[in-house]
Design goal:
The chain is an alpha+beta fold. The protein has three helices and four strands; from the N terminus they run ββββααα. The protein is extended and about 50 Å long.
Length: 98
């Protein structure tokens, strides 16, 4: 079960996000893990992935199953970012040589 609020940094804020699908504004509470765009129904995720990776209360906060799920997403994102950085480096090196 999700704990009431973030135990690592208990501050409640309303965050404005942009839907990557349709561009509409989505309001999400800082302690919510996801929100649905009212315009197109796309589900966005809060930056909770960041705190799940470092917060000692993460498993208690989001629950074991959600924690494991979010850690897998974070791992995929990190791998994707590494590959993009490697590709950027290769392109930069080719530009310098070309």
């Amino acid at each position: 079960m999700i704990m009431e609020g973030c135990q690592g940094k208990p501050q409640l804020k309303i965050l404005d996000k942009t839907c990557p699908n349709c561009g509409a504004e989505i309001e999400i509470m800082s302690v919510d893990t996801e929100a649905v765009c009212e315009k197109c129904g796309f589900t966005i995720y809060n930056d909770t992935l960041n705190c799940v990776q470092w917060c000692k209360y993460a498993k208690k906060c989001v629950g074991e199953e959600m924690y494991e799920y979010m850690m897998k997403i974070a791992e995929r994102m990190n791998n994707r970012e590494k590959k993009e950085a490697e590709n950027d480096d290769k392109e930069n090196n080719q530009d310098r040589q070309g």
